[in-house]
Amino acid sequence: MKSVAILGFGVVGSGVAEVLAMNEDKIEKHVGCKVRVKYILDLRDFPGSPFESLVTHDADQVFGDPEVSVVVETIGGARIAYEYTKRALSLGKSVVTSNKELVATHGPELMELAKANNCIYLYEAAVGGGIPIIRPLHRCLAANKVVRIAGIVNGTTNYILTNMRDNGETYEDALKQAQANGYAEQNPTADVDGIDAQRKLSILSSIALDGSYVSPSEIHTVGISGLSLDDIGFAGKIGCKVKLLAVLDNQSEGKAYSFVAPHFVRSTSVLYPVEGVFNAVVVEGNALGEAMFYGQGAGKLPTASAVVGDILEAVMPVEAVAYAHNWVVPSEGERVTLPYEDAVVKIVVRSASASIDDMKKVFASYDTEAVLDDKDRKAIFVRGISNKDIDKLVASVKDAKWMHLYE
Amino acid sequence: MKSVAILGFGVVGSGVAEVLAMNEDKIEKHVGCKVRVKYILDLRDFPGSPFESLVTHDADQVFGDPEVSVVVETIGGARIAYEYTKRALSLGKSVVTSNKELVATHGPELMELAKANNCIYLYEAAVGGGIPIIRPLHRCLAANKVVRIAGIVNGTTNYILTNMRDNGETYEDALKQAQANGYAEQNPTADVDGIDAQRKLSILSSIALDGSYVSPSEIHTVGISGLSLDDIGFAGKIGCKVKLLAVLDNQSEGKAYSFVAPHFVRSTSVLYPVEGVFNAVVVEGNALGEAMFYGQGAGKLPTASAVVGDILEAVMPVEAVAYAHNWVVPSEGERVTLPYEDAVVKIVVRSASASIDDMKKVFASYDTEAVLDDKDRKAIFVRGISNKDIDKLVASVKDAKWMHLYE
Q: How far apart are CA A41 and CA A18, in angstroms?
């Protein structure tokens, strides 16, 4: 049994408690023992929460408990979070965080403190929410000189820019919309002025440059509040979209630079289709070439997913982390997955001569959707059908062919 | 100093030697000591190669040398590679490989052998070439139940399908083209019949299902050789593209299934834009939601990048692997990156009244390209300009505005 304490029970902190509970069995299997939340430290009470009984207001109780080996800092900001992180690390308790401000501002000191106290400070969730990017950049790309990073690392601004483009909304209206939908804070400065992106770029740059700390203060930053609908519309005329990019360029030896600014992104780039609240980071290594990491860059459970991944690394014996896990062969005559025939899938059925109605009738016991009704070709999607039932049903539609569908 | 031996000096094996040489300094900094290739075991000689002097035909010399702590298996296949891998692991030498056939076929036995001998068997390069996917799936997503994986994991077939679609080539012609360009083997069976994708899916599924080994023999597999131009053209009519997908579906408890088959992929999917020899794997976790890993799935240096990443993990003390590296603050008054003003960038300059010629004249000392020449709006790309020179030059173009360009 390993015990963790969550400091700050806001969106991410409560997500961490939820993910640990939701995937309890999977986590026990991965780590080799149970991982439980022993304390939740917050100024507030949470009557009615399933985690109510774990809430404490007494920091001394949390830090004084030798059973707590990992502290989850989801307070945010660089004041109380900074003090508590130093206190935990000084006591040899590993700290796991989603707090980009703290990592970007005090990372070097906190990492050194962790090392000196034989514990670790992990921050996978600080960039890209749940998207794995810190660990892949640091470990999987360790053989590369990173020559370029370009990232859409702030979902709020990307959401605003997507809405300006798709719905012709002005910046002010799109911002209001984002606030109404919970994608922007009431005080949106950190997002729209690029400060959040600046912090994330500070973290990515410091890793990419092999631990040479790039302070946020080194990073020239321009936000999106100066953008007009004319800028957005014009981008389309030259085959581009406007995106707020965090860029590290390290192509010329000794001439690395980092900045955050709106860019025209060409349609040939893999960043071009990244819309709404999604994040994507392109990393170019001198051996790897370009790779991209894409997903939801924020949100309660996605961010908690990354925090909990770090918790598991922090509680596991170092050997277990470094080693890949072993695979267990099923018993003789058994199998892990269903036989193909029993898998329930989605397919496209098409025919040159049958009507949509004919086709829908044959697949009446499934979820169907007409997708093409040309004179010489009809097609439907069929969802929820077992592979074993496909062939005989398709055979009863005149001239029909089928293929699996992925959507 | 850490010594490694490369078994099999083909495309990937020689790439590994090249990457270790090319990024020697960076690697020494990351690991904390030099990593050198001590032996290259191959049946052939390589006269003229910079690594000629390391070549040996004597396996006993390699395995008998206690200095060799990591063996790189880039032989391929599941015969000699299997014997050598067992021999190395039995001796407590960690093995790193790009050999998906061996991992998919004998993974469980080899991982157990590694554990029993206190060493590790790593295979990041076996899926997705250089794209980090094995480690992120195993470690960063450890907090998730993986509910779905869908991957374009074979570049050869994706290249053929892209050419059929874009150039109207038949399957046979597109295959010949792929062979001529070195993207398909002379015997293309393993690729076009989906066997390569099957092996990769076996590996991904076994990790996603927490170590329950999904043998390739469990995976129903259909290749692309039966596809017609009509299939490809039809896909376009319903807003899809045809892609060979490796799918693991684990949405219903106890009803996981894995199969490889051509799919119609809808334009709303993030897999839709993945073209040519690129690979992409979408992973859906129950906390994370969807994330995608994208990049070059094959090739000498990209694949070697992943192999060398594993080598570094294998040679490092486990503590160093588990812990994030520390960041070093530059001396007082110094900075890591160039000041913004000195960064050399690309921009778009646009004007409602200046002509293209006017604009090109102002930016004559840079690389310029006209991109829009409408009656009421002109625009050029300017490449290679310093940020500090932008404003004053743009000011000398009538009614001009500018923004950074990312391409």
A: 16
Residue A325: predicted pLDDT: 67
Q: What is the model's pLDDT at position B298?
A: 87
CA distances from A377 to A177, B216, B263 (A): 42, 37, 19
Nearest in space to A345 (alpha carbons), one of B274, B245, B210: B245
Alpha carbon distances (Å) from A290 to A189, B299, B301, B305, B343: 32, 12, 12, 12, 22
- Longest Cα–Cα distance of chain B, Å, equals 77
Residues forming a β-bridge with A379:
A350, A372
Q: Which two tokens stand for residue A208?
A: 């990419």
A336 chain-B contacts, CB cut-off 8 A? 205-206, 209, 212-214, 218, 256
In contact, B185 and B306? CB cutoff 8 Å: no
Which ranges of chain B have pLDDT less than 50? none
pTM (two decimals):
0.94
Residues in chain A predicted with pLDDT less than 70, given as ranges, are: 318-325
Q: Tell me, what amino acid is at B181?
A: N
Contact between chains at B291 and A238 (C-beta distance less than 8 A) = no
Q: Is B373 on the interface with A (CB under 8 A)?
A: no
List the catalytic residue out of A200, A241, A360, A378: A200
Using the Cβ of B288 and the Cβ atoms of chain A, whether some distance falls under 8 Å is answered with: yes
pLDDT at A316: 86
The answer to whether residue A276 neighbours chain B at the CB level (below 8 Å) is: no
Q: Which two tokens stand for residue B117?
A: 């001998």
pLDDT digits (tens, 9 = 90+) for A12-54: 999 999 999 999 999 999 998 999 999 999 999 999 999 999 9
- A154, exposed or middle or buried, with CB in 10 Å at 0-12, 13-18, 19+? buried
Yes or no: say if A225 and A193 are a contact pair by the CB < 8 Å rule. yes
Indicate if ipTM > 0.85: yes
Q: CA–CA separation, B172 vs B163, rounded Å?
A: 11
User: DSSP class of residue B145?
Assistant: P
Number of cross-chain residue pairs from A and B with Cβ atoms under 8 Å apart? 418
Residue A140's nearest CA partner among B208, B69, B131, B149 is: B131
Q: What is the structure's pLDDT at A317?
A: 75
A200 is catalytic: yes
Residue with tokens 């950074």: B404
pLDDT of residue B254: 86
Q: Are B89 and B118 in contact (CB under 8 A)?
A: no
